[in-house]
Design brief:
Layout lengths: L2 H8 L1 H12 L3 E4 L6 H6 L3 E4 L20 H11 L6 E7 L3 H13 L4 E4 L7 H23 L5 H27 L6 H10 L5 H17 L8 E7 L7 H7 L2 E8 L3 H4 L9 H10 L14 H12 L3 E7 L3 H16 L4 E6 L7 H17 L1
Parallel strand pairs: 1-2, 1-3, 3-4, 5-6, 5-7, 7-8
Helix pairs in contact: 1-8, 6-12, 7-9, 8-10, 13-14
The structure holds iron/sulfur cluster.
The site of iron/sulfur cluster has 15 residues, from α4, α5 and α14.
Amino acid sequence: MFEPFHEVVNNISRTIGKYESELSRPVIGVMPAYFPLELIWAAGAYPVQLWGNNLPLENSDAYLQSYCCSVARSVLELELIGGAKMVTGYAFTSLCDTLINLREIYRRLFDKPTLELSIPITQTVQARKAYLSSVVETVLEGLEKITGTAVSPQSLTEAARLYGRTRALQRQLYQIRREKTGLVKNYDFYTAIKAGFFLPAGVYQQMLETLVADLEKMPAPGGKRVKLFVSGMIFDPLEVYRIFDELAVDIVDDDFANGWRTVSKADLKVDNLVDGIADYLFNPAPCCCLYNPDNDRHTYLLKQVKDCGADGVLFWYVKFCEPDAFDRPQLSNHLKQQGFPVSTVDVELSMSNFEALKTRISAFCEILEGHG
Ligand code: SF4
């Protein structure tokens, strides 16, 4: 059932190359996080999401300090070693200082065009929208320059429908995982989500339709196993999910920026694009990188953890991610006060030895077994 998704994730360059020539659309590399892919598709390009990779980091050290996150370092490494030849241009958001600086590095080092959707930091929704109006206009102009195709109301509506349906199917997959605990292996689940980073939305959608229909027919497995909630920015390295599978632990929900925080987004409203993008960026899930006084992360996360019936919460810390690190102590304390056991693991995308991680995860899950 999950084989087609594994096939994509194990052959990323081949997948992108195949669809680039089939679609005859320029490939736009989308950096973390929340750039609405709808805009890129509507402008006639093929968006692929770059949430980092597991390349050994050798060349990027010349431009980024070793205490930058492995997400930024590894995407830069990919371009530096010529591994992103099919990417015509890059779409950034101003998610964090690292990414803002990374775009400047790209502008100096490479001659590929870069766009930035600058995310406002404002006190009110009105101010947010006022700021975004000029930003959105600049982004659309930039996209048109790359593709030679102007975004039209019709192409936007079609793109919004396409990506809206894709995320709705991903949400169904999340729902199945919550309701039929243990039916989907952790490694398979995240592979299915990750495949969507590289496939054209229409192709991915068909694969998800089949998968969801098949899973819905299957019964939930019986038996009691540890249920875990995981929170962090990026769910990689994928290999770690084999550890959870070996330990017979079920991740029942998550709060990853490239997981639920993105999957939960409703259809992009395109009638008033600025309002639509403001909603899209800030709702429904809060994020450590977004300033939104109206959407408290403590409350949101606690509700998520309670709703999925998790026995405990694991913070998945991609090393040196400042926004994530700054939020974690308060979130962790709040969850502990509510009676949830909490632990943290540090990961790097390029890591290849998982023994220490296995010991730590295993120790935490033993505590959860005793706790339940
Ligand atoms: S992992 Fe953190 S520091 Fe790195 S790019 Fe993402 S938000 Fe920025």
